[in-house]
Amino acid sequence: MYGLSEKQFHLFFQRADKQKGITGTNLLVIIERRLDNVVYRMGFVNSRTQGRHFVRHNHFLVNGQKVNIPSYLVKIGDVIEVQEKSRKIQALEDALGAVVRRGIPQWLDLEKENLKGIVKGLPSREDLTMPIQEQLIVELYSK
Fold first, then answer.
1. pTM of the prediction?
2. Strand partners, 108
3. Predicted confidence (pLDDT) per residue in 113-133, tens digit
């Protein structure tokens, strides 16, 4: 679903396991915070794969700095915006047109006219509507 390799997924699991709280929920929150997923959730792109591609090709700035690492974890207060030179890309314009239909999670805020988004908070388990049984993932990786 998120386009992660087994190694990346395992590293995220280890990170989630070290945090306080429910490991499965922590894992999903960490994965949701990846930059390629956040640009998808904000509506700048039509898929996570396209988000990964656009991030890799320097189309986004995080807090005014170029970030081309799809696995970059956003924090509360981070500002993600489309680079000035990338604002005329047709795929970005098409994706923003479809954002009304798809919706934006509560933990994100989008300024559509400025091609800018702000991370207002961290995602909660209730924000994730995908049918994921995180307990099964935890059982598999806990062996």
1. 0.86
2. 119
3. 889 999 998 887 776 666 676
Longest C-alpha distance within the chain, in Å? 49
Nearest residue to 25 via CA among 119, 123, 93: 123
105 — pLDDT class (breaks 50, 70, 90): confident
Question: Which of the listed CATH numbers 3.30.1330.10, 1.20.1060.10, 3.40.50.970, 3.10.290.10 matches domain 6-141?
Answer: 3.10.290.10
Q: Given CA atoms 59, 33, 127, 105 in this order, what sign does their dihedral have? A: negative
Strands across the sheet with 60-62, in order? Answer: 65-66, 60-62, 79-82, 116-119, 108-111
